């Protein structure tokens, strides 16, 4: 009897220790510095600022609880950055849709005649994946991807290939955040089949890929047209990025033959882009016309090669970035234009006809600023600096307002900031770009890696902000916190730049500079 009593006491103590440990572990998995409730007021404002035109999987009334459970936290002294950060999560949530085959993500909330089943459009799928990879619950993005690739009686949706795609690249970069190798390896046959389909239908005998503008989601461009089969920097860069990703996924699976096959495809594609799409006279990657010869216009799509780290890290390629600080190039009062301002055909294709002849499109801004962040992190160049990056991020933030309220739409006038389809219901909450991914990986500078190291390289210029904090970032099952406190008086956890995992500091620096540390 006494032995049994002692056994019960020991068991109870062990259970208590376990429960205490579990409670401690749960606590450690939350944000280390910021408090979720401090940002609820943004959602309350968004919910009441206008009518809820369409409800999908997560209505406005559930938006705060959903965001509390799923999104990173961000605090900055420049409150418009902070407001748009939460606004973009709030709008992204609107596009998550439950279908008979699982979760999906829409581009427009309103029905479009040219969409696939469930009102799906594949044009911005790469953007959807890059942005949604930071959601804490993987079921949403898992479902979105599976719906696209297997939601048509086990086969891809009929219009998956209606638009150029960088999905394999996006999914590999999603893996870098989640660490879920089983999901990405399971998707490998789907991604290989998709790549082969593009080779079959869009690759020329010389190995280059062609695309009509509208199938790039870029209807009225200076370089081409809706029916012209030009060789564009878009699809040729996408195919390079996809081949590199497939090779990495194949190696994760242990399929060395497939990995080598796609590494070779990627390298050949890289050589083709350098040899054929670089206009040495204009120092820019440009579209080549169907009949031959350059289109002789610099367009924002010429920055896309850097989105995939394709260009060689040498001159003359760095020179292309001189155009983002040139008012005759792409620098306009309300953002980065889609064609160079100096061109005689700039903004000549008629208002409100999906103009990619110079108007500012968040789709393109996302690609260019992601490419620019890669430039700072992976290239040795002196054409642009952190001030230039911040300038364009600042313009991007400022552009995302309409009539004094947060707004994201299709495209806007580069001089006035007026949303050219702002009063059309189709444009409201347009899910065609990224923003929060660039706050995380660009401005704050968390760079997910495939090894056991944590890399942070903020692109906030010295002296711009005295403090900022990115918290509650779910990374491979842990919670990452990054904060900058110039004086140490904001967060009372020390001066400088600090990186924490589950509340424990793993690295710090007195300055805003690159940090690489073991996880």
Assembly state (oligomeric): single chain
> In percent, how helical is the residue content?
25-40%
- Rg, rounded, reads 24 Å
Dominant shape: globular
Strand content: 5-15%
GO molecular function: hydrolase activity
Signal peptide: 1-23
Protein name: Glycosyl hydrolase family 65 protein
Domain Glycoside hydrolase family 65 C-terminal: 450-506
Report on this structure.
It is a single chain. The chain is of the alpha+beta class and 519 residues long. 39% of the residues lie in helices and 12% in strands. The strands form 7 sheets. A 5-stranded antiparallel sheet has the order 1-13-14-15-16. The longest helix has 27 residues. The chain is globular, with a radius of gyration of 24 Å. The termini are far apart. The N terminus is likely disordered. One of its GO terms (molecular function) is hydrolase activity. This is Glycosyl hydrolase family 65 protein. Pfam families: Glyco_hydro_65C, MGH1-like_GH. Keywords: Hydrolase, Signal. InterPro entries: 6-hairpin_glycosidase_sf, 6hp_glycosidase-like_sf, Glyco_hydro_65_C, MGH1-like_GH.
Salient structural properties:
single chain; 519 residues; alpha+beta; 5-stranded antiparallel sheet; two-stranded antiparallel sheet; 15 helices
Can you lay out the helices and strands and say which pair or pack?
Blueprint lengths: L1 H27 L11 H10 L13 H8 L2 E3 L3 H16 L1 E4 L2 E4 L19 H8 L6 H12 L16 H12 L2 H6 L1 H15 L7 E2 L18 E2 L1 H21 L2 H22 E2 L4 E2 L18 H4 L23 E2 L2 E2 L25 H17 L7 H14 L1 E2 L2 E2 L29 H8 L9 E4 L10 E9 L2 E8 L10 E6 L2 E6 L5 E4 L1
Antiparallel strand pairs: 1-13, 2-3, 4-5, 6-7, 8-9, 10-11, 12-17, 13-14, 14-15, 15-16
Pfam family, one: Glyco_hydro_65C
Keywords: Hydrolase, Signal
Protein name: Glycosyl hydrolase family 65 protein
């Amino acid at each position: 009897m006494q032995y049994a009593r002692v056994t019960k006491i020991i068991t109870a103590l062990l259970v208590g220790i376990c429960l205490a440990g579990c409670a401690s572990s749960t606590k450690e998995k939350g944000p280390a510095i910021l408090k979720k409730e401090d940002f609820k007021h943004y959602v309350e404002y968004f919910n009441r600022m206008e009518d809820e035109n369409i409800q999908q999987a997560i209505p406005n009334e559930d938006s705060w609880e959903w965001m509390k459970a799923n999104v990173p936290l961000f605090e900055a002294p420049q409150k418009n950055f902070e407001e748009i950060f939460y606004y973009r999560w709030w709008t992204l949530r609107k596009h998550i849709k439950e279908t008979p085959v699982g979760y999906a993500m829409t581009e427009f909330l309103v029905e479009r005649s040219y969409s696939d089943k469930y009102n799906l459009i594949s044009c911005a799928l790469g953007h959807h994946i890059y942005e949604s990879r930071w959601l804490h619950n993987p079921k949403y993005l898992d479902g979105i991807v599976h719906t696209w690739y297997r939601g048509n009686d086990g086969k891809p949706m009929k219009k998956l290939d209606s638009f150029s795609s960088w999905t394999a690249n996006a999914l590999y970069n999603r893996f870098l955040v989640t660490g879920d190798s089983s999901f990405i390896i399971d998707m490998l046959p789907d991604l290989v089949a998709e790549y082969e389909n593009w080779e079959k239908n869009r690759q020329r005998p010389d190995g280059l890929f062609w695309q009509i503008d509208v199938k790039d989601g870029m209807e009225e461009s200076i370089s081409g047209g809706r029916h012209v089969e030009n060789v564009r920097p878009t699809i040729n860069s996408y195919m390079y990025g996809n081949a590199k990703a497939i090779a990495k996924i194949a190696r994760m699976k242990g399929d060395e033959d497939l990995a080598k096959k796609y590494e070779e495809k990627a390298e050949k594609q890289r050589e083709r882009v350098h040899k054929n799409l670089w206009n040495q006279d204009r120092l820019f990657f440009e579209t080549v016309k169907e009949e031959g010869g350059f289109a002789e216009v610099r367009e924002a799509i010429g920055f896309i090669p850097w989105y995939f780290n394709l260009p060689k890290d040498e001159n003359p390629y760095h020179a292309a970035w001189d155009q983002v600080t040139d008012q005759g190039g792409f620098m306009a009062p309300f953002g980065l234009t889609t064609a160079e301002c100096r061109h005689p055909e700039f903004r000549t294709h008629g208002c409100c006809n999906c103009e990619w002849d110079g108007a500012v499109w968040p789709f393109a801004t996302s690609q260019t600023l992601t490419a620019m962040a890669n430039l700072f992190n992976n290239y040795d160049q002196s054409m642009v600096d952190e001030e230039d990056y911040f300038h364009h991020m600042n313009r991007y933030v400022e552009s995302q307002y309409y009539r004094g309220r947060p707004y994201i739409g299709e495209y806007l006038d580069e001089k006035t900031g007026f949303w050219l389809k702002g009063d059309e219901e189709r444009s409201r909450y347009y899910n065609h770009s990224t923003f929060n991914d660039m706050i995380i990986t660009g401005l704050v500078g968390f760079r997910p890696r495939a090894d056991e190291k944590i890399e942070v390289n903020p692109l906030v210029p010295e002296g711009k902000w005295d403090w900022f904090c990115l918290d509650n970032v779910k990374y491979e099952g842990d919670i990452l916190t990054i904060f900058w406190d110039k004086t140490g008086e904001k967060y009372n956890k020390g001066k400088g730049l600090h990186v924490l995992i589950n509340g424990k500091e793993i690295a710090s620096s007195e300055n805003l500079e690159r940090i690489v540390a073991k996880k």
